[in-house]
Design brief:
The protein is 66% helix and 0% strand. With 394 residues, the protein is mostly helical.
């Protein structure tokens, strides 16, 4: 989000809270037991610690208040620290926030050094985390399921104003703590690429991992439309070219589908460089299994000024009609295509039929040629002769 530059952490914390909900499950379990000593529940301290690590201080304080010793000085001190902990906000500049943060963390350190929480190892451990102790935070890695979960927890208490361009460094440190690059899954590789702003790598991983191009194509398209990848910031060179490539490939796959090919047309419309040419080539390959489908292709081509597609589609349908000995329908398609040679050929066929049978087939067509009568000289002759014949009969 370009509007949240300098305050990346709240978004990361929200992301983590959506995917790691052990603390919520633990809180429900603690609250569900009817006991005078909730702290005796096996999940009490782990749940409290998880809320603290996720920066959810209101929930942590509510759980802390259930402790039977809450009215003691050490619990009151911990509750005060949790209540006073500053969190990044768009209403406060990063500089002002850091001043408040450092003052608060200095207060935490002074209370730890004074031994206020020494009697309770669990409280002392929480205080060490609040103080940003690397040793305490490193111990929390064993509680985390993934490297990125631990990375966010660590950032909260060591660098709450982390910038986007620094995130890759912390991601690499977290991966090293969790076994190095050899242990990464496909999802891990995607997330690492995102933290390092390496979008080509992200797209490559997504394309290799997923069954189709739907997700990478739409993801990149959304990011571009949201101006989250401003080319002026050199986030990635030729971002527009990569976006168009993915959309073209996805649209091409849709065009090969019997029922989804029309959806592919919309994607080609969003590709300003090669979309028109690719659409023109693929429309000519659409299987014309019915008049309805042929008319769909012609309508799409006309809307986009693809006159060669209109002509070729009409000619294909005309040849199909001719193969079925339906010369009248073939002539209708030929007139729509504007193909003078094909029209002349069909006019000769109609004249031949007339000389053999002594009557015109397709009289409705011949009686309503309108301006199409001038497409070819042979058709003009045929139309005029049909007019003469009709007048003679009358």
């Amino acid at each position: 989000d370009p509007k949240s530059e300098g305050y990346l952490l709240p978004q990361l914390l929200h992301w983590i809270s959506l995917h790691f909900k052990d603390c919520e499950d633990g809180a429900r379990s603690v609250l569900s037991q009817s006991s005078d000593s909730p702290e005796d529940h096996v999940l009490y301290w782990d749940t409290l610690l998880d809320f603290v690590l996720q920066g959810r201080m209101d929930q942590a304080r509510n759980l802390l208040k259930l402790h039977t010793d809450f009215n003691t000085d050490m619990f009151a001190s911990m509750d005060q620290l949790l209540r006073k902990m500053p969190l990044p906000s768009n209403t406060v500049s990063c500089g002002d926030f850091l001043i408040k943060w450092k003052n608060w963390q200095m207060e935490v350190v002074s209370r730890v050094q004074a031994g206020e929480f020494a009697v309770y190892p669990q409280l002392n451990n929480i205080a060490e985390i609040l103080a940003g102790s690397e040793e305490a935070l490193d111990g929390m890695a064993n509680k985390c399921k993934t490297w990125y979960q631990w990375m966010v927890y660590r950032l909260l208490y060591t660098n709450p104003c982390v910038a986007t361009y620094d995130l890759g460094v912390y991601a690499q440190q977290a991966i090293d703590r969790f076994g190095g690059l050899d242990t990464l899954t496909s999802l891990d590789s995607v997330l690492l690429g995102l933290t390092e702003l390496d979008l080509p790598q992200v797209v490559k991983e997504l394309c290799m991992t997923l069954d189709g191009l739907w997700f990478p194509a739409h993801l990149l398209d959304i990011l571009c439309h949201a101006n989250s990848l401003n080319p002026n910031k050199n986030v990635i060179p030729n971002i527009a070219g990569l976006r168009e490539y993915l959309l073209l490939e996805y649209a091409t796959s849709l065009m090969s589908h019997n029922s989804l090919w029309q959806a592919g047309v919309i994607y080609f419309d969003q590709c300003p460089v090669q979309g028109r040419q690719r659409l023109e080539a693929l429309l000519e390959r659409v299987a014309l299994t019915s008049n309805y489908k042929a008319n769909k292709v012609i309508h799409i081509a006309k809307e986009r000024g693809l006159h060669s597609v209109v002509a070729s589609t009409c000619k294909v349908m005309g040849m199909k009609a001719l193969a079925g000995n339906d010369t009248g329908s073939a002539m209708t398609w030929a007139l729509r295509s504007g193909d003078a040679k094909f029209t002349t050929f069909l006019a000769d066929r109609l004249l031949a039929e007339y000389t053999q049978s002594g009557r015109f087939s397709s009289t409705d067509l011949l009686d309503n040629l309108g301006a199409s009568i001038i497409v070819s000289e042979r058709l003009t002759f045929l139309g005029k002769y049909r007019e003469f014949s009709r007048m003679r009969e009358e």
